[in-house]
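User: Okay, second chain of the day. Same drill as before: sequence in, C-alpha cells out.
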Amino acid sequence: MNPFQNRAPQLSGPATDALPVTPDDGADLSRVAIGLYVETGGSLSVVTVNGQTRSLSVADFSILPLGVRRVRATGTTASGIHAMVLA
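Assistant: Same drill. C-alpha cells below.
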C-alpha cells in the first residue's frame, strides 16, 4: 500500500523525492527544494527561494529545512548534497 497515494504534497513534508545536487553558480536547481540533506559537512552557499544568498556551516548528515533554489559552487565545501523536493 502506498501511503502517499491520493494525498496532496505539503510544504510541511515529507518530501517525495531526493535529487542529487551539483553546486553551480549560474543555474538554479531543476526543482525548488523544500530542504537539503548534506552527507559531508562544511560550508554551504545557497540562494533561498526568496532570492537571498546565504552562507551556512553544516555538520555531517545535516538536514536543512530551508527553501532553496540554487546551491552555489563558490563558497560550498560540503558534499553529498541532496535536494528534498515535492513531486
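The CA atoms of residues 1 and 87 lie 18 Å apart.

User: Thanks, on to the next one.
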